[in-house]
Design a protein that fits this description.
4 strands, four-stranded antiparallel sheet, alpha+beta
Length: about 80
């Protein structure tokens, strides 16, 4: 799976696990994503996929590097599709 495919799968997983917002975005915490069994089976490196998605402006979150435990409550926003 290449990076673009992983980012697309990440979009799908955030929509599955997250809460829809009125502006068309979705919000989910890092801990929810990290601890989900389906996500664990899809993403070998969830943090790397999140960083790639952030660079492409697909998602937004505070900070650069998210770590399990420390950043479980960090909110990840899936930006609405234009």
């Amino acid at each position: 799976m290449n990076v673009d495919e992983e980012v697309q799968r990440l979009r799908e997983e955030i929509m599955r696990l997250g809460q829809a917002q009125t502006d068309g975005s979705y919000k989910v915490t890092f801990g929810t994503l990290f601890n989900d069994d389906q996500c664990a089976n899809i993403f070998e490196a969830l943090v790397g996929t999140l960083r790639a998605a952030k660079k492409r402006k697909v998602v937004a979150y505070d900070g650069e590097l998210l770590l399990q435990g420390v950043h479980d409550n960090v909110e990840i926003t899936l930006n609405p599709t234009p």
